[in-house]
Amino acid sequence: MIDGTRGPAADPHGESRRGGGRIVVLSVGLALLLLVLVLAVLAVPTLQEYRRAEATGVERVGLAAAGYAERVASLLERADHLAVAAARLSAFRAEDEGFTVLRDSLTRDVRWTPALDGYVTVTADGKILDQFLKGRADMRAFSGPAVVSRNRDHWSGPVVRVARPMGRQAWFLALERGEWTQNGEFTGAGVAFLSLESALREAVVGRLFENALIRLQDQGGVLLFESRSAEGDAGQLWLSPQRHKAVLDLYSNDAVSAVQTGWSDGLFLASQRVPGLPLVVSVQIPEAVFMAGAERSLLTVMGVAAGAAVMTLLILTVILRDRVIQRRAEGRLREAEERLRFALFAGGLSLWELWFDSGRMEIADRVIGSLGYRRSAWPPRLRTVLRRIHPEDRRVLRGLWQQLRGGDLSRCSLDIRIRTAAGGWVWNRADGRIADRRPDGVPLRMIGVLHDVSAEKGREETLTYAATHDPLLGLLNRQVFDDACRAACGPDTRFGMIVFDIDHFKRVNDGFGHAAGDQVLKTVVARVRGALRLEENGQLFRIGGEEFVLLLPGVCAVAAAAVADRLRRAVGGQPMTAGPAALTVTASFGVCGSDQISAVTVGDLFGPADAALYAAKDGGRNQVVLHRPVVPEPQASGG
């Protein structure tokens, strides 16, 4: 907006901009100084953390190798016991009780030891006597005759072989043991299968370092088992066995029976011999397992320092620009409010706002003024509004209020009548929706608009009146009469129906013209209305050109006939003007009451009443004929 009180040279923001530039320069210098101080303070602890992480990695990888070697040695010992027991089965026959007892013991040991995958007992001729496998070991890698022929004379200790099932990433050690009788007769052999992957999972290194690489070799360097890297295709990260041994040799010249540890190529390395067996365990763990914390600390320190400098700069800049931005925002807000007020004014809408907890309700001054009230006479309370709403609309509004408070509705639209200061009623359409709720869903505030729809309601009433009333006489038309005929009628709901028309009305039209005929119709209707009493509460219908129906609720046939005779006298009692002439016009009446016939609906009365009307015309006109029910004649009894 333009402020006309200031000249073109006035610049209220110039000094702020110059001061803001100096503040920015100062904030940048302070931020850089703060960054340097933070890095200096945190550099020493970060380097110390690096050294501790390196020492921890070397120590842990040695412990991991020792733990896995001890676990393999323990499991190999159990597997050796299992192989000895399995070989002992060959000394029994299958039907012997000792065979059953020993086999049950073997099966139980395999079931309860996860790393043991089964056993096989082979007879002296190479046939399989008994076997129990968990399903992971593949017997295609085992040949009974080959075991016997290869090892029959060479079982001075446990024979260890490696079997790898085809198509699987699982390795097994097979321990073979022979069995002889006391007289030296060879009876057979037993083979126990040990899962090296299970041994890895049960060992400490397998549980703590999921991405560790484990190798098992004999002393000749032959690879017996190798676990897979958890990093999938990043296998090039791991060192070859030869490179692994060369790195450790640089760190230590000890014998391989001792634990060798080292750190190279981004890996912590360790090797140890399995106690009591010619096997060597090698472990490789990525340095990230131990060094990630130190690296994260360094990155965190650098990020905090940089963030502190940036945030200092941003905060000072924001503070400097805040006043300018605020003033611009306030200007835009004022413009938006002006546009909103104009849009509401142009659309004939007025805002209202309601607070559920306090019952406070604010309504625009425009609505209060249009109703003829002063602002001081309209307190901002909901009960003030309710007192000025039509009782019928108030009941509907209270029901909507309960639904809104209960959460069944979130918006509403209702046409209500509001009393003006002069005592009249003005139709308004209230549209609203819930704007705020508590965490439990209970509404707190509602906003909406009011729109004066009196003109719309007037058009609706005009259309409704035109659809239900005769345009000439203002009486209810034939469509409304047909609807009324559908109403139920019975002993508890009496109705009397009077059907009448004007005698010789065609002569009036033919002799004096339709304008005179219309005047006669208006005069007849006016005299009928004047003759009706207020308590009779009758409904008068025009169902044809000069034919009318008067429906009297709660009236019997005799009372309806008395009303009809009063109407007859009122119509023909005095001459009436029809154009230039004065005519004496009469009418004929037919009457029927629900107490005369077994009527189910009001429409059942029309036929008898219409028949009575024709009887009145046939009897000379200008009279009332009451329907007379036909009474069946009694039948003579036979004698």
CATH architecture of the largest domain: 2-Layer Sandwich
CATH level-4 homologous superfamily of the largest domain: PAS domain
Low confidence ranges: 1-18, 165-169, 230-236
Count of individual helical segments: 16
Q: What is the rounded distance between the termini?
A: 118 Å
Strand order in the largest sheet: 2-1-5-4-3
Kindly name the structural category. alpha+beta
CATH class of the largest domain equals Alpha Beta
What's the count of strands? 22
Largest sheet: 5 strands, antiparallel
Describe the structure.
With 639 residues, this protein is α+β, with helices and mostly antiparallel strands. It has three domains: 61-290, PAS domain (Beta-Lactamase), CATH 3.30.450.20; 345-460, Beta-Lactamase, CATH 3.30.450.20; 469-626, 2-Layer Sandwich (Alpha-Beta Plaits). It is 45% helix and 23% strand. It has 16 helices and 22 strands. The strands form five sheets. Strands 2-1-5-4-3 form a five-stranded antiparallel beta sheet, with helices on both faces. A five-stranded antiparallel beta sheet has the order 7-6-10-9-8, sandwiched between helices. Strand 3 (159-163) and strand 4 (172-180) form a beta hairpin. Helix 14 (514-531) crosses helix 15. The radius of gyration is 55 Å and the shape is elongated. The N and C termini lie far apart (118 Å).
